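Example protein
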Amino acid sequence: MNLLSVLPERAPEFLTDPDVEAQVKNLEIKVLGGRPIGIVNNQFIDLMSAIAGPGAVLINGEPTDIRRENLSCLRYGLGTDGEIAYVPIQAGACHLALTDHSPRKPASCMNEAVRINRESPYGYLPLGHTADVPNISLDSTDNASTLLTLSHWPSNKTPVRYKANLSTQSVFSFLKEGANVDGAQIVTSDHFDLDGLASIYAFLSPSHAMHHQQLLIDIARLGDFSRGESPQALKTAFVLNSLAAKVQLPGNIDADTALLLSYRAVLPLVEEVLDHTERYEHCYLLGMDHLARSERLLSHPDMQLVEYPEIDLAVFHLPAAISPKPLNYQRPYLGLSNIAFHNRTRCGVLAIIHGSVLEVRQRYESWVERISGIPRARRDLAIFARALQQDEKEEGVWRYGGVENIMPALKYDGPGSSRYAMETLLVELRQFLQVAPVAWSGSHP
């Protein structure tokens, strides 16, 4: 069965103030999660927050209108009944502080494409190399030359019958139909992760991938959602991530070239890793040991998990009996395995507590489009961070990774601990999640 190529949709026109227009003219801007996002080398810039400051919202709800007259900010009041107020944004010049906002240089040399199996007509090129190359976009956004998208990214253009929680699942649904896309011999993506790797591998080596379909889906789920318990999938996922981390990249190369080199190094190894994982024991032992140690700590009899499903929050109280020695407060999830946490709860917001330390994390499931399971609507914790900061110690800062990032964290950064009692922080966090409006929705049209 052939799928007829369709003309790409026209990119939306964005309304901006003149000084902002001058700074974003070379950016690719898309509406993702219901927000205008500037994309540079797979880095996301929330333009609303960049222009108006943390907690920015649209007055008329139209994400293509980012003029200052259409922007406001939300303020949350600590110690109130959960009051959120709209406040005018501060006037003044906008400085987006973009380190690299030059347009990508299209490089469409087909002989650079990564190919690993003669049975497949497809090769891989990074998205930035396909500006004028008909392509199938996998686990990624699209460009003007994309003929088919198979992705769970927010605002994706995946045909309805192929939509799934993971891009790899969408790919297998497409491949099972024996379909092809007229004019496309290149698959593309704009980043490296396990869901993308599994999706690309399935196109480049379809027979072998189909033989390992469930394993590849499990690997993709571990890579994106940090969830899964299959020992084989865990070992294979740790191996593939380890192999990717060991790729030697020359200095001063652009992001697309680095991406091409990473896939060129790892894709030819996937078949052997899937078939003979035990040969790569040296690559997965560290990850498996880290997960096992984390599981033991979270299985401590005094560890408490309290869930608030109505606000999609899970609170992990790590017992005081666990000394700080096996923890690392500077690392994500206090230095423990995120898989150990995610396997214990389906809630999308995780609050991890040890003594006076609090780390709040929003899961990747709330960034992407979900077809089944619990809806994940993300709140902007920048509003909450600013409220905490008002009465914080001068040397301490509450930092939030940004609602546009795939797995942002909120935590206190400073000497010692926050001035707030942990009970106060949890009460205020629960209240904020109850009253805050949705700031990001992966399923936003």
